[in-house]
Amino acid sequence: MIDPNKKEPLPVNPSDVCYRAFELISAKQFADAEKLLAGNMARTDDNVAIALYHSVLGVLFKIQGEYKTAWRHYERAEKLMPEDPALKIISARLLIDQFAEYGQAIRKAKKVLDLSKGNPVFAHQAYTTMGLAYCKKGDKKKALEMVELSIVDDFKDFISAKNIDYELVEAVLRRGWGAGAARRFLEKALAFAAAKNEDQHINLLEKMMAAFEAEYPQKEDLS
What we know:
By secondary structure, the protein is mostly helical. The chain is built from eleven helices and no strands. It has a domain at 13-82: Alpha Horseshoe (Serine Threonine Protein Phosphatase 5, Tetratricopeptide repeat), CATH 1.25.40.
């Protein structure tokens, strides 16, 4: 007989679990975060929830420098959610940063372009990711091409300047490449932030531009 006074447990919201896990990770309570994620993963057969837990476990192990374990979790998440462009970007960056698997990273980024047609932020991340891979390969021409392509329609369809990723620009400049391309990128980013009245990003970009002009004072295109 069913006890009418017995309360059914409330359904677990995977987003809440992941949020709590990130809190634990931020507090460096790594074992507790892993236990929370693994325990909830064992209690669900929802592929989306499992994929989310694997993706956070990937973050957890990446932070701890356990890159192979992190990669395995990202791969499991991606297999469960193969149409999710964010997971492909995350795993592609790990391939570049830790495993020197540049070709595989580029293929993942190209897949993001196919999956995210009409989403300029994902396109920006895909081009940035490909550029980073080409940069690590020493392919100056392709890396600078990706810098230009990453300025997706002058950023005008972005929601906020916080969506702009500067990692590729920094990478090419460290190699002494493409001051002209970098200048165009920063100028477009600053114009976008100004159009959005985002003072924090305007101030940041003005400082970046000042530092850039001090290093590269000539106005001619130095691509």
